[in-house]
Amino acid sequence: MGATTQLNHKKKQDSLYPLFSLTKEDMKRVNQLIISMAKSNVTMIPEISNYLISSGGKRIRPMITLATAHMFEYQGDEHIKLATAVEFMHTATLLHDDVVDESELRRGKSTARIIWGNQASILVGDFLLGQAFKMMVDVGSLEALSVLSNAAAIIAEGEVMQLSAAKNIETNVSDYLKIINAKTAALFSAAAEIGPIIAGYGHEERSALHQYGLSLGLAFQLIDDVLDYSSSAQYLGKNIGDDFREGKITMPVILSYTRGNDIEKIFWKQALENNHNNDESLKHAQHLIEKYDGLTDTIEQARIYGKRAIDALSSIKENPAKNALIDIIDFCIERVN
After folding, report:
1. Phi, psi of 105, rounded to the nearest 5 degrees
2. Kind and range of the H or E element at 200?
3. What is the CA radius of gyration of the chain?
4. 76-97: buried (b, 16+ CB within 10 Å) or exposed (e) per residue?
5. How far apart (Å, rounded) are the C-alpha atoms in residues 36 and 18?
6. CB 173 within 8 A of CB 251
7. What is the rounded distance in angstroms from the CA atom of residue 170 to the CA atom of residue 226?
8. Which of 134, 52, 65, 141 minimizes the C-alpha distance to 91?
9. End-to-end Cα separation, the chain, in angstroms
10. How far is CA 112 from CA 85, 131, 183, 224, in A?
11. pLDDT tens-digit profile of 36-54?
């Protein structure tokens, strides 16, 4: 690892530390509840659940729920159940996504569908969603249940929207933002909003945290789009070209396609609509994206959403949780460096 890479890695870890430190003790309890709620007499359920849960994710979404509860000085224990429910919703989405996308790898490991099959992956994802809703009901907050159940429906809509847009190179920026708003940002916003809900705060605080999570989620997904075509993604453990091989239409592709000439547009159609997406095609796609500033402009758009996330917190009084939530914006965006 070179000196520059080490420095960037340290910066990213520094931006993560405040959130990790703030939620460390609560996350121990979340992790214990995750293990408990993933148990079942059906052997395959804990096998698949534990395989996914232990695969190396940073669990940013549940930490956001815990941090927002701290932000509003919540004194109870229900944030543990809600944070766990958020993580189970996310894990279920990953299981379902990998089946829909026919993915073979996630975070450098074989996907559950490759090991146990599509049917088992779908059904275990359903089990985790069921356990998530059980925890929501146990909390007893109709408002929190409403926010999270609404997010679950929106996420499903986003997945269907993405399926409809897959391999459709004519997808425009507006339509794509609607997809990632639903598919990714909805859970971030719900995870952030339930903090002030269980702390007993009203519309102003809920709206601020909802907007924070929404903007953060959009920034997070746009950077994921960049990582699929970025050489730095190797260092971060993401498999370069997965989106390309699966025919996903993402922001860097949309920008490069709309700015390209007729010959270049034919290439994109052949690569993404007709599955001409071998390693040589991926290299040409990366060349075109660089030529038309697809990565640079996508990163800039992510930074705009990051600024909106910061602005959303402007009415919230200064405290360690607010600072940690601002720092995590930097982490989400600077992953690409």
Report:
1. -130, 145
2. none
3. 20
4. eebbbbbbbbbbbbbbbbbbbb
5. 27
6. yes
7. 19
8. 52
9. 14
10. 20, 19, 20, 21
11. 999 999 999 989 988 887 7
Token couple for 253 = 């592709």
Per the CB < 8 A criterion, the answer to whether 327 and 19 are in contact is yes
CA distances (Å), origin 6, targets 2, 21, 157: 6, 22, 40
DSSP calls for 129-196: HHHHHHHHHHHT-HHHHHHHHHHHHHHHHHHHHHHHHTT-TT--HHHHHHHHIIIIIHHHHHHHHHHH
> DSSP assignment, residue 337?
-
Read off the DSSP letter of residue 42.
S
> Across-strand partners of 226?
none
Contact 162, 134 (CB under 8 A): no
∠132-135-140 over CA atoms, to 5°? 135
pLDDT per residue as tens digits for the range 134-172: 999 999 999 999 999 999 999 999 989 988 888 889 999
Taking every pair of C-alpha atoms in the chain, what is the biggest distance, in angstroms?
61
| 23 Cβ neighbours under 8 A, 6+ residues apart | 63, 66, 67, 70
- In 3D space, the residue among 115, 48, 128 whose CA is nearest the CA of residue 87 turns out to be 128
Predicted TM-score (pTM) of the model is 0.92
Report how far residue 193's alpha carbon sits from residue 286's, in angstroms, rounded to the nearest whole number: 38
String of DSSP letters for 227-287:
HTT-TTHHHHT--TTHHHHTT---HHHHHHHHHS-HHHHHHHIIIIIS---SHHHHHHHHH
| Token reading at 4 | 């520059």
Q: Which long-range contacts (CB under 8 A, 24 or more apart) does 315-319 make?
A: 315/204, 315/208, 316/71, 316/205, 316/208, 319/71
